[in-house]
Amino acid sequence: MKLLTGEILSNEKYSDNLYKMEIFSPYICKNATAGQFINVKCSPEGVLDPLLRRPFGIFNIEKKFNVFSMLYRVKGRGTKFISGLKSGDMLDFAGPMGNGIDLNGNENNILLIGGGIGIAPLYLIAKVAGEMKKNVFFAAGFKDNSYLRWEKDLIELKINYAVLTEDGSWGEKGLVSDYVWNNMKSFKNFDIYCCGPRDMLKTLQNIYKDRNNKVTALLEERMACGVGVCAGCVVKLRKGKKGFSYKKVCKDGPAFNLGEVIFD
Amino acid sequence: MKLLTGEILSNEKYSDNLYKMEIFSPYICKNATAGQFINVKCSPEGVLDPLLRRPFGIFNIEKKFNVFSMLYRVKGRGTKFISGLKSGDMLDFAGPMGNGIDLNGNENNILLIGGGIGIAPLYLIAKVAGEMKKNVFFAAGFKDNSYLRWEKDLIELKINYAVLTEDGSWGEKGLVSDYVWNNMKSFKNFDIYCCGPRDMLKTLQNIYKDRNNKVTALLEERMACGVGVCAGCVVKLRKGKKGFSYKKVCKDGPAFNLGEVIFD
Amino acid sequence: MTEQDSLFSYETDTGGNGFSLSVRLGRIKLDNPVIACSGTFACGLEYSQFYNTAILGAVTTKSYSLKPIEGNPPPRICETASGMLNSIGLQNDGIDIFIKKHLHEAEKLGIKIILSIFGQDPEEFRKVASRAADIKERIIAVELNLSCPNVKNGGMAFSAMPDEVEKIVSSTVSILNIPVIAKLSPNHQNLVEAAMAAKKGGAEALSVINTVVGMAVDIETFMPRLGNVLGGLSGPAVKPIALAKVYSLTREKILPVIGMGGVFSWQDALEFLVVGASAVGIGTANFIQYDVGEKIIEGLRNYLKEKKIYDINEVIGRLRT
Amino acid sequence: MTEQDSLFSYETDTGGNGFSLSVRLGRIKLDNPVIACSGTFACGLEYSQFYNTAILGAVTTKSYSLKPIEGNPPPRICETASGMLNSIGLQNDGIDIFIKKHLHEAEKLGIKIILSIFGQDPEEFRKVASRAADIKERIIAVELNLSCPNVKNGGMAFSAMPDEVEKIVSSTVSILNIPVIAKLSPNHQNLVEAAMAAKKGGAEALSVINTVVGMAVDIETFMPRLGNVLGGLSGPAVKPIALAKVYSLTREKILPVIGMGGVFSWQDALEFLVVGASAVGIGTANFIQYDVGEKIIEGLRNYLKEKKIYDINEVIGRLRT
Ligand SMILES: Cc1cc2nc3c(=O)[nH]c(=O)nc-3n(C[C@H](O)[C@H](O)[C@H](O)COP(=O)(O)OP(=O)(O)OC[C@H]3O[C@@H](n4cnc5c(N)ncnc54)[C@H](O)[C@@H]3O)c2cc1C
Ligand SMILES: Cc1cc2nc3c(=O)[nH]c(=O)nc-3n(C[C@H](O)[C@H](O)[C@H](O)COP(=O)(O)OP(=O)(O)OC[C@H]3O[C@@H](n4cnc5c(N)ncnc54)[C@H](O)[C@@H]3O)c2cc1C
Ligand SMILES: Cc1cc2nc3c(=O)[nH]c(=O)nc-3n(C[C@H](O)[C@H](O)[C@H](O)COP(=O)(O)O)c2cc1C
Ligand SMILES: Cc1cc2nc3c(=O)[nH]c(=O)nc-3n(C[C@H](O)[C@H](O)[C@H](O)COP(=O)(O)O)c2cc1C
Ligand code: FES
Ligand code: FES
Predict the structure, then answer these.
(1) Cβ(A97)–Cβ(A38) below 8 Å
(2) What is the ipTM of this complex?
(3) How many domains would you assign to chain A?
(4) What's D179's domain CATH number?
(5) Residues of C designated catalytic
(6) What is the pLDDT of residues B83-112, one digit of tens each?
(7) How close C91 comes to chain B (CA, Å)?
(8) Chain B partners of A77 at a C-beta cutoff of 8 Å?
């Protein structure tokens, strides 16, 4: 993990609030693995407001070019700031942070379930799994077709996928969790990785309660440090029969066993 | 006085820390007079840090083009921000503020004494006085030749002037206050306007203590509101024999009778 | 003055369509919960260049004392991270000039005035209140600035001493018999006791917070950045502190609260309302966004419309804990 | 580890050329006045990925209690204007795990450790101090986090009660007989009395300030932004408040002070030193600029060189008022 400044090679607008930023960084390309994230300073040099860094999953790594990318949604002040950066500007970030996903011990079948911007960190998992010649299926659900441009990225991976939108404007109409439920049998011996809104994760937790798929969720929580010192980013995990403990998303995660997560 | 947004037509770098910004504003061009200032928001839209507006004298008004300008020195966070603005960007400012200088009741001879960035508001006085066919002399003192580019602006006014620099790199070597002292006799029946660092003003106050020139100083003080409500920008003025009172630079000034100012 | 005209009609227009911004704090009724804070708006005259300040729920005047006060030596202002320090030192023209001059000007503009007063000791508070008795029909309330130092009592602020708070409030109430607001300081731990004392004294409402004690140093000169060394911090930086202080009072339901501290937008104002403030004061924001009062009223009105909330009182105190 | 190596040599180099950054706070001697604040640096391990944290004057550990504490429900973090709120709730592994595990790791890195401890009552403080007795040669001081609530006494923070402060400090001193630092809260008006009580109890120094009570509201959900409703404000926003609090203590020359609150740069650190702090704590800044500790040490060193000041003590307390 290092504090870095990397040149922005592109900051492409995918749709109204969706951007993909490519950053030159040999260090990240060499050291990062799928599932990890970077922590980005989202204010001009020397400026301390907004104060905190923002975490973003690593969307893609192109080792050959020493370029990695992040796919991000403009939500508030921080993401608004970075959406205004241009190629040639420098990005102040740190990484790679969090634990990477080790696909070696896995089933040969991988199901990725993404909701909204939750698809971002799953993309790199899909790519890596594909390169390992695993059988990968990506189920992605959205409100509308604002992520349409992302389908092009997905097609490059040459994996099977299904897109669902709530308004039916792209792919099938419906919720991705319903899709998973309806196709339960086809994903019998799949290891599952999911990332997305709380409600989606809750539903998936229910769906997979009594099944013995290995289901891993990539979680989000507001962060201060991103390196494990502040205990600001905790999520509640089951511990023993009735107990719980708080685990840090930044250091113990961001991937957790979905079955252990307590959503209250 | 209005809250305005004006398009920046140019933001020219005069030297390392010196810029001239031209802003399109029919309202300012119609309503402002020499000696007044504008109050500029020096952070991006929606951003509140740095918090306070910064006051800048009106350097020039070109009524024909509805363009006015300010000449400014990059000092801290606020001026650094505006120095990065580009033509086409919008400037958030308010004005015109403070009292203008009425040259009508004046002597026919005007001496302007500027030190450093203090030349900025004097320039418009010089221009207006010139247009009134007064006999104008501009004595300007600087540390070095970083204001050299400004001489071109000055030449346009077709008035007499002297430039002094402490290092002798441009014009005569020396202090502008010494120059004034040495040429005292030539400026006998001149009304005087001065603006510049505290030490220069103090010296001039001494020089003109017992003479009956009308000497007006344009003062600077840190401001919060700029409109006269906060009493933040006060300077100490003599009142009666031994008393004093605090006057607001923004509302009662920025021009004051130099003889009345108490520098302590 | 076409801008002002259009504002007026705009206001009547939305006033008529069933979305109400009116609030009550005891006997104080306001058309909307947006109040200009003492010391940041003079009497409303200056800002009338930017919008019709009569649309504000009320304008609280600069704090007036018996005699004019020259205030502290400059520099009096210093910018800090998302905030500012001031050490104005309560410079003011004295209550008599207010009565003779400023009140008249404000009335001409239709501004609803809350008169802020202070004294160096309870006796001066009483005297200022007595002067205000003549004009009590022309103002909607008196606000007591209890954050100023009690010179007869070691310079500690009145609002740090619940007994003094009660005494000053009750003497003002008995002299004026119009609504009295006690403005309390955030710099003491016994805010709740001070508030209860104000209630006992007969106050109608509380204004919270005044500025937070702070300082800054010029590392070039090793001098304090303020002539007075210490000053009062205001602006966005203090908003979390102000919200916590307001909450500590509204939770106890002592008196209606005018919440203030770092309000710059209608969203900020809404935070205070949700925490339980019945009205919101706008201070430092006036210095930066000259028409912020109007913007916040519009913002709150649009919020109600969008959410189909017919009465602003529906959101006051609706914090979900 | 070439980066760390070069840092080390850099340090010795400038250490040798006559510009001294060493400071003393009673019996506590530090190579430089830059200290990592409790709760913002763990035990230094994580930040050792970014620079050699052994160069810091000291690292104050997360505050440890007798047993592990799970802390408050999330969300625990919320950004505010130039600041942040936290409601971690003193989550920690308990003093035993510190002794068994974290201390060892920090020692391996050569980090100078100030152990921060707390308890729910004076008794727990005593017990934690007793556990620390075994390792007292391996730490340079113990810091008592007196801003935590005294559960046996209505939940009011210890540092609001001078008597309790004295009691806890003196019992720790008698158990440990190593330098004890009392960390005081800015949320009470009797800071000076608390400081004098700490001195009476035998404290070597004071750490000021802990976070300022604050809150924030989500106007979408009407929920507080922190799971715990109230939290502690830190970061640049509080710097003016912190400076004023430190000044209120250094003016009285009670005990040496470690000044903290919003320090992000060497210039900020210098402000605290000029006001009279003998050392400076870096908290929130670590979260944003991971190598800020190193940057501030370098910055102060360059400042001395540039100004030809041979000893940092020359600037401490040199405020010109
Ligand atoms: C491990 C991790 C990976 C992430 N990966 C991505 C990604 O690949 N693409 C993407 O678009 N977003 C991602 N997010 C969410 C992203 O961090 C937030 O959208 C972003 O912080 C919003 O910042 P803002 O200033 O625009 O919003 P604001 O709402 O103004 O932010 C205010 C504060 O809340 C925090 N915050 C707001 N939303 C979130 C959130 N969802 N999660 C955590 N903190 C939040 C901010 O960091 C900031 O501290 C990730 C979050 C985490 C924890
Ligand atoms: C009436 C008036 C007219 C002015 N005209 C000009 C001009 O034409 N050209 C020009 O370059 N400068 C002018 N100044 C000075 C200019 O306002 C400051 O240089 C500017 O505010 C510095 O802002 P900063 O953020 O870069 O500096 P910082 O030092 O970061 O500012 C911090 C705070 O101090 C205040 N401040 C700093 N320096 C001054 C100063 N000299 N006077 C008043 N406040 C200050 C800032 O406004 C801000 O509130 C004028 C000042 C006044 C009062
Ligand atoms: C320059 C200035 C002057 C002030 N003068 C007064 C005053 O005279 N009386 C008073 O009660 N409060 C005074 N205040 C405090 C404000 O009314 C308000 O309580 C405080 O600034 C917090 O709100 P804000 O953050 O919106 O400014 C003053 C504040 C500022 C910034
Ligand atoms: C996330 C967080 C956790 C903290 N935990 C502790 C703690 O355990 N013990 C303690 O004494 N202070 C704690 N503090 C307070 C800091 O040590 C410091 O006093 C305060 O944050 C002010 O400094 P800053 O503005 O530089 O952060 C914590 C602060 C933060 C932001
Ligand atoms: S963000 Fe600090 S521990 Fe995770
Ligand atoms: S800046 Fe507010 S009165 Fe001049």
Answers:
(1) yes
(2) 0.96
(3) 2
(4) 3.20.20.70
(5) 148
(6) 999 999 999 999 999 999 988 877 789 999
(7) 7
(8) 46
